[in-house]
Amino acid sequence: MKKILCLFLPLLMGSAAQAQYGQRLYDLDSLSQEWFNDGLITDQFLVSGKPVYAATGKVQSPTATGALIERSRFARIGFTGATQANRFYYLFYNGAERPSRMNSICEGSNAFLMSGVVYSNNAPGTGDVLLLKTAASGVPQSVRKVDLGGFDESFCTRRSAKTTSKYYTCGSSYVQSSSAAFLMKHNASGSVVNWVRKFSLPCGTTASLAEATSVIDDSLSGNVVVIGHVRSASPSLACQNAFIARFSASGALHWLHFIASNNAANFNLQSIRATNAAQEYVITGSALNPANGKNGILLMRVNTAGAAPAFVFSKLISSPGPTPNFPVSQQAGYDVVSRKDSAGVLSYYVAGQTSYTFGSGDGTMLRADQNG
User: Does the structure show a pLDDT above 90 at 355?
Assistant: First the structure.
């Protein structure tokens, strides 16, 4: 599951404890386990005009017996650290509560649209794509579940840049030890699904597991680009590739391109975002760094205007631990944005994770220039 780590936790040299600057805990109670899977900065909803941070994830009950009890989680937080909304959602179908979690959040017109998965009580081990539209405060306006024929889970929902009343959701549909990636186009409430595209992706000679993790469309052409990864099913990890695909606004596949890796353990693409050029995007994820044999942050820029993707650059970024006592085991990028500063200089900002060999880790934030 994709997890976005949005706090940078530097290490205080000379102390055994880690100093956590600006960290706040947002608990709904003192017992449950809670975490966020995605977040977004927005200034659309406040009278004061100041931006806020909205995040979504899940709450897991510590007293659950038998079935796993998860409830979708939402918080909206001012940049001062003040909590503006702090809630979780009980979802009921046919009179019974269904566990659920949210993996993605995006802005709508005076609303948020979140997506994830809602479990089925009638068929254990199955679930449907969950689409939850809320007001700015997180009050639900509509709840929809979309059954794609397996254990169906969304990892990303984005509002269309071409048609603001439409949204794209992508994820994975798992059936009998294998899964297909999916992409669908729908309206804000999820009541109208314009089309769904499921695509099984080969990886070696055995059943494969495919996940579409991020999606974006071009404001001029309307072309839709989706990224993700595919690997051979466990326990074998003989194959793991990333992929990037382009669809038309009506769901026609233009091309599908695989990116092979010599690392069969952790090669993936996590987020695609717009740059300063039409049909040209910046992508982050993780892959093996041949220089040190460790997973590093993957950063690439790709032009999708032609008959196949053209990679402007593709780089792996690795950094040492803050002190020799903190050797790095792996690093990964989970989300990326591009911004110009006051002088008009374009930079990429990546949020991710650094893990250490002894098991702990820190959130990672990095800035790269327009050439990576």
Answer: no
Strand order in the sheet with 70-78: 33-42, 52-60, 70-78, 83-89
What pTM value is reported for the model?
A: 0.87
Tokens of 52: 């806020």
Task: Kindly state the tokens that stand for 320.
Answer: 């040492």
Q: How far apart are CA 103 and CA 105, in angstroms?
A: 7
pLDDT of 104-143, one tens digit each?
Answer: 999 888 889 999 999 876 666 689 999 999 998 899 999 9
pLDDT, residue 200, reads: 85
DSSP H or E stretch at residue 330: strand 328-340
**Interacting residues of 270 by C-beta distance below 8 A, sequence separation 6+:** 2, 213, 214, 284, 285, 286, 332, 333, 334, 335
Q: What is the pLDDT of residues 309-354, one digit of tens each?
A: 999 998 888 877 777 888 887 888 889 988 888 888 889 898 888 8
Distance CA 173, CA 179 (A): 5
- The residues pairing with 300 across neighbouring beta strands, listed in sequence order, are 283, 314
